[in-house]
Write a structure and sequence with these properties.
about 400 residues; alpha+beta; Beta-Lactamase; Helix Hairpins; 4 domains; six-stranded antiparallel β-sheet; five-stranded mixed β-sheet; 11 helices; two-component regulatory system; kinase; transferase; phosphorelay sensor kinase activity; EC 2.7.13.3
Length: about 400
């Protein structure tokens, strides 16, 4: 009897264990089916998002390449593949090799466009779009930028976007050639007129004739300056394209251009370069901006004064500071200095040449190049113009 009781108890235990195990298996199978269903839904959602992204990226006029955090290519649209082939970039699968035919804005200097360079560019959100020329012979110009991709603070990778700007660049080049030609045609007769007037003033003439010659010379000088300013104003109509520009060489060129005026005004120009390197800015525009600021500094400084030009860095941005030896400007004058045709009382009283367009043109050029110009009182008196330039390419981004 005891054995029978033990047998039934053991059988009940086995049945209970089988029931519990079966219940657990059914629950695990149910959870697994739910997980598989969720996984299928997530996979289908990813496929739908991928299809939407692919359709949008193919419809855009931009080349788009998406990288994961390790620099592997996740996806690229058709235009990106076509530009990659032109640049000699191996864009197959998840690979991305440095291009064989990628050049900077001068079309000659090889440009390092590697995954590391693109990743570094994506981590610098304040950097403007770059210009690169692609191709060995039949080159095209592209404006490219890189942007990080993140969600809830987690890095998901980065995206490279490039846009064909060949027509724009060529239009700017045609415009500049036209302006150079027009400038030459306008300057030549004025230069002859001023030269002949100067020679006539050196001759022994009556006071009445000398007075007339002086008025002719002053009028020719004003007309020459007006032509220069109007041509410069026309150049600002099209946004300039950034390029890698040496700050020291550009400042040195401007100092040389204004050397004659400085000698004539008996003003000493001192230039101290602290090795700021390069900036990402249109060289012609930067030269025009600094030329106008230095000319103003010389004109507003009394004989025997010194105009100082210093270069320094403000974080990663190159800065050029031009300090004159003049009487300084009031807060209102500094605020209105960039208005078109604005001239201070000091300029009118001392007959300083100009029509009030120079600083306005410099400001327009600055705005088109991500450059800021600030006028502030100098510590020793006078006025300091502070020109803050866009960050330069970091060492190694561009090959020499």
């Amino acid at each position: 009897m005891d054995r029978l009781r033990v047998f039934f108890a053991f059988a009940a235990l086995i049945a209970l264990s089988a029931f519990v195990t079966s219940h657990q298996l059914r629950r695990e199978v149910s959870h697994r089916h739910a997980a598989l269903a969720a996984s299928r839904e997530a996979s289908e959602a990813r496929e739908r998002l991928s299809a939407i992204f692919q359709a949008v990226s193919e419809a855009t006029k931009d080349a788009v390449i998406v990288f994961d955090p390790d620099g592997r290519v996740l996806t690229a649209n058709g235009l990106a593949h076509r530009l990659a082939r032109r640049a000699g970039v191996a864009l197959e699968g998840s690979s991305f090799s440095r291009g064989r035919w990628v050049y900077s804005a001068d079309r000659r200097t090889p440009l390092l466009l590697s995954r590391d360079a693109i990743s570094d560019l994506a981590r610098r959100p304040g950097v403007r779009a770059r210009i690169a020329w692609l191709g060995e012979r039949d080159q095209v110009a592209v404006s490219y930028s890189a942007h990080p991709i993140a969600h809830d603070g987690e890095s998901l990778g980065y995206v490279l976007i490039a846009h064909d700007v060949t027509d724009l660049v060529e239009a700017i080049e045609v415009r500049d050639r036209f302006l150079d030609s027009v400038s030459h045609e306008l300057r030549t007769p004025l230069t002859v007129l001023m030269g002949e007037t100067e020679l006539a003033q050196m001759e022994d003439v009556s006071a009445k004739v000398a007075s007339r010659l002086e008025r002719v010379d002053q009028a020719a000088q004003r007309l020459f300056a007006t032509v220069e300013h109007l041509l410069s104003a026309y150049r600002t109509a099209v946004r300039a394209l950034p390029q890698t520009t040496s700050v020291a060489l550009t400042v040195g060129d401007v100092v040389e251009r204004e050397a004659a005026l400085a000698r004539e005004r008996d003003v000493r120009v001192r230039f101290a370069d602290h090795g700021v390197g390069t900036a990402s800015v249109d060289a012609r525009s930067l030269r025009a901006i600094l030329d106008e600021l230095l000319r103003n500094a010389v004109l507003y400084s009394p004989p025997g004064a010194t105009v100082s030009i210093d270069t320094r860095r403000d974080q990663d941005r190159p800065v050029v500071e031009i300090t004159d030896g003049g009487a300084g400007m009031s807060e209102t004058e500094r605020r209105r200095a960039f208005d078109r045709f604005y001239r201070t009382d000091f300029a009118r009283e001392h007959a300083i040449p100009g029509v009030g367009l120079g600083l306005s043109i410099a400001q327009s050029l600055a705005e088109g190049n991500d450059v800021s110009i600030e006028l502030e009182p100098a510590p020793e008196g006078g006025t300091r113009a502070r020109v803050c330039l866009p960050p330069a390419l970091r060492p190694g981004e561009e090959a020499a």
